[in-house]
Amino acid sequence: xxxxxxxxxxxxxxxxxxxxxxxxxxxxxxxxxxxxxxxxxxxxxxxxxxxxxxxxxxxxxxxxxxxxxxxxxxxxxxxxxxxxxxxxxxxxxxxxxxxxxxxxxxxxxxxxxxxxxxxxxxxxxxxxxxxxxxxxxxxxxxxxxxxxxxxxxxxxxxxxxxxxxxxxxxxxxxxxxxxxxxxxxxxxxxxxxxxxxxxxxxxxxxxxxx
Length: 210
Known about the structure:
Elements: H1 3-12, H2 22-32, H3 41-46, H4 53-66, E1 70-74, H5 78-91, E2 97-98, E3 109-114, H6 119-131, E4 133-142, H7 148-158, E5 165-168, E6 172-176, E7 184-187, H8 194-204
Parallel strand pairs: 1-2, 1-3, 3-4, 5-7
Antiparallel strand pairs: 4-6, 5-6
């Protein structure tokens, strides 16, 4: 993550006040901004998590909100992500069941994470997830702005015909397969800061009083 890249993201992104989709407003409000358990940097270090702290912390909040019954992590770094998710589940009293990519998941998965940083592998993993998804599946690709290669992978996933709603939260890319939604792409700040959001609100014309 470069300072210039993140600054550019912040300048183009919105918070919940800039979202006019009821579904996305609810998700962002409850998963990103709700007051509740957070993963601390101390916990992240103590658990020796191999997922970057910003990505792990946001994923921790999402898991706490959606409370997935069936999870699916696919890719060469799957073990690292599963360890992080298991900790999130234990801390929030969520029983996470992880399914193998070798067999169909009955009813589809609730949470899927692509643990690949190579475009070809990530796209293949995504196709596996699509075939094991349902209407409310949440699919996540971590560290989408880590480098140009990951950004290219993210854009390719956003353009997949099955991806109806996508969210660029900088540290995570989030994809939904909701059939009733029109295809939309959002850039959403993963956290709130009164001073920062007020400055950005001057440009966007909202957020100063919310």
